[in-house]
Amino acid sequence: MYKALYRKWRPMTFDDVISQQHTTDTLKNQIISGKTAHAYLFTGSRGTGKTTCARILAKAVNCRNMVDGNPCLECDICRDADSGALTDIIEIDAASNNGVDDIRDLRDAAVYTPERGAYKIYIIDEVHMLSANAFNALLKIMEEPPSYVKFILATTEIHKVPATIASRCQRYDFRRIKAEDIAVRLKYIASQESLNLSDDGAAMIAKLADGGMRDAVSLLDQCSVCAEEINAETVSDTAGIAGKDYLYDMLEAISASDTAKALAVTASLYDMSKDLTRLCEELITQLRNIMLLKVSPQTAEGLIICMPDELARLKALAEESALETVMERLSMLQECRERMMKVMNRRVEFEMTLIKLCGNVKNNPETIDNSEIYDKIKQLENKLSAVSQRGAAASVRTEVQETLTANNPAAEAEPVPTVDLKKLRPEDLIPCARWDEVLEEFKNVSPAVAGSLEGSVAATAGNVIFITSQNRFFITLFKVRENALRLGETINRVLGQRYLIRARCTTTKDEQKSMAEQLIKKAKDSSIETAVDNENSYQ
Description:
Blueprint: H1 5-8, H2 21-33, E1 39-44, H3 50-62, H4 76-83, E2 89-93, H5 100-109, E3 120-125, H6 132-143, E4 149-155, H7 163-166, E5 170-174, H8 179-192, E6 196-197, H9 199-209, H10 213-223, E7 229-230, H11 232-239, H12 245-255, H13 259-271, H14 276-295, H15 308-320, H16 323-340, H17 346-360, H18 371-400, E8 402-405, E9 430-431, H19 435-445, H20 447-450, E10 457-461, E11 464-469, H21 473-477, H22 481-495, E12 500-505, H23 509-538
Helix pairs in contact: 5-6, 8-9, 8-10, 9-10, 9-11, 10-11, 12-13, 12-15, 13-17, 14-15, 14-16, 16-17, 19-22
């Protein structure tokens, strides 16, 4: 029976594995030194060699004639392992055996010693598919396994593996295989299989494989029955990336704002049963290629996958559109792709997005006349600036020019200051040496209100006295007519002169709130201490 090439050419030793030398060298050194771990976690994208290395490792630790960390492939254990007849190596597909009962069966069987090899190896592929209860059942035996049991876990989605499991394993990350390494390996396989594979065909397959060796060999196998010579054109036809003129027709229509043409192409594809979700994804891929050509035209050709004639059309599209426009179209298509999975009529959703894409060019900032918009923005900035200045002036008046007089303005005319307050400088103020006397006298007049002036200072300039307090409550209290009159009378009585009072607070509302909270806490702590003292006295 014919055997698929990817199965036939699966690596049998660590030396056959390509582009993963950082992992294979470490595993070989562990095997040679006899210091292998009890649990391994292999992660990476598909086709990079995770399961292959797990099988090689399982063979190598049990091989009777190990050679430089590699299995010999000649002993009975190696031969039975390759044929799947060795009972000491158990492979479990977690995608289909993901229940807690499956892991309990594994745990119960692990108590039995290996039959022929030195170790019983459990390879759990796609381990991230296990249920939460299954992970919990696996946790205990992985933490303290029997000395003859080893676990090798493989996954493509490491973020789904619980940290409690990952922390008990030695983790190895498998990198995507380089395109040039894939091409070299394909040329070797083709020579062994008597296939006529050209260099450009190998390079095209390597690009399409996207870092996965298995995908590359499978595509080579598929191409081998399509033509005698496997070149880039053969690969494109087989992989279905050739004959995509409709994509470029649609992109050109979008770039030219030709909505009718874009909708006509869509209708034609829809009549041919083209999946519109797939069409949206293909447009995203081609716009990505255009984006790369815009950002890095020198290196983009090595990053995109297309035929030579398609590359010319892509370059033409890249020259016609600005990078911002391309990225905006990409975002719109990605959003459309997400919405299409949730709506009933995907055609309507896709056509709505097409109409938006075609209209987007008209709003291109490189072609629009922005003079009118700039004028409106400038007018708005001027208005905001005026409002901000008025707000700042009002704030200054509110904070600094809180005016308090002994004579209420509503009842009696406010005294006229003998100094120009606008030209007043800090050095013109004379500290009020008798301010403490004023505070002591005011305590006799209004002790409750005088408390808000505790810690305050005062200075005079002409017939104006400036009071600075740290208590914002002071401003609120002296807006009351009676309090203002009492303060003015007290100042007149002590200093022998009637003053126009100006006052401000140096503490913000947030600071005042914090101080109040501290006082409340202090009062509570004080009451608690008093209560404790009383209780002790009763005892």
